[in-house]
Amino acid sequence: MKFNSALRGYTSKRIEEIEAADILVGIPCFNNQSTIEHVVQTVTHGLNRHYKDLRSVIMIADGGSTDDTREVAKEFEIKPWQEKIVSIYRGPGGKGSAFRSIFETAHRLEAKACMVVDSDLRSITSDWVKYLLEPVLDKGYEYVSPVYTRYKYDGTITNNIVYNLTRVLYGLRIRQPIGGDFAFAGPLASYYIEQDVWETDVARYGIDIWMTTNAITNHFKICQSNLGVKIHDAKDPAEALGPMFRQVVHTLFVLMETYENEWKTVRGSRSVPMFGLDKFLEPEAIKVNLDRLVNEYKTGFRQFKSLYQDIFCPDCFEVLKKAAGLAKTKFELPSETWVQVLYETAATFHSWTHNRTQLINLVTPLYLGRVASFINQTRDMTSIQAEEVVERQAQIFEDHKDYLIRVWEDRKNNGPVEKLPKAKK
After folding, report:
1. Sheet of 143-149, strands arranged across
2. Measured between alpha carbons, how far is 232 from 229 in angstroms, rounded to an integer?
3. What is the pLDDT of residues 377-391, one digit of tens each?
4. Cα gap 158→151, rounded to integer Å
5. SS3 at position 286
6. Structural domain spans, the chain
7. How do residues 105-150 score in pLDDT, each as one tens digit?
8. Which CATH superfamily includes the segment(s) 9-276?
9. Best CA proximity match to 161, nearest among 284, 298, 253, 83
């Protein structure tokens, strides 16, 4: 069923009662009863501390939780002169539909600024409210992307894929394009709800990268805000990130097709203004299962070897083959090969009209292998030192953008697969 609005009748009525707001804080959630109270409590304190004179609304956009998430949110008492909306959104299940309901609410309340934070945050502080909203309210920015201090093995999809591709494609060094905690101006929220994507996969997943990419390609004024350490319900990449990899990469590749004319002309990258905290702290460690990562890679290579040979150029395939024979502590999948894997996969995705989901599935074991390689490479490093490895890899992506364009066009025309040229010094 197609919905013209993500807002149910009772939510619309509540918005009519409130009439208008300066600030809207949206909290998308689903089965987060153990963390939602802390997030709401921190937000209400932050609004009271930093924006007491502005009219603020906190909106819990729930996906039909089967635990007590909504009950906990309803019962928690927020500060005086603030309003609260607890709603169940309409539309396809997923974070994107929750965001749609928040965008609509911001539009109807004519909010000057909107902030969205994840519902599983354990490290959120009241100052996050200021760090995210101040650039919009006081400095004229229209989109604020987060920057966090994260443990070196947290955020592996961002570190190995999303940061690199966003930077190389669109020329902006936005460190956390899918961070989950953003702020944006009211007019940008109105722009988002006008886009015809709410019955697509964007409504189910991929909303974060869709928002960031649209803000870039439509030339909204963008900055970043350093929020400090991010601690949430972290996931071991070997255990839970396969589905997220498939969802995010699929969305990235679809956006590459949508904005092909924009990114093909971009060369190099530039930094984006930064606000918020001016220091970086070493975050808490998270456990990773190196054994499982390497085993997933080796199993995937055995199963899909012949398909890898068809999809990837000979040089790339030989490195993948060699890696399949390495012990876990010696396992290596170099950055240069990973660049080839992603670029050639993107080009193949572009040339295929069917089986695109299967293509992404094929590449999932290679992503897990790249994470294993990164773990081995940075084993004795701090998270700050490991960040330098991420930056070097991003530069390799930039150095080989011409190769991406060539294979993108060659695959579409069924031309030959070329070898990756040597990067210029």
Report:
1. 82-88, 56-62, 23-29, 113-116, 182-185, 143-149, 222-229, 274-276
2. 10
3. 999 999 989 999 999
4. 12
5. coil
6. 9-276, 290-412
7. 999 999 999 999 999 988 899 999 999 999 999 999 999 999 998 8
8. Spore Coat Polysaccharide Biosynthesis Protein SpsA; Chain A (3.90.550.10)
9. 253
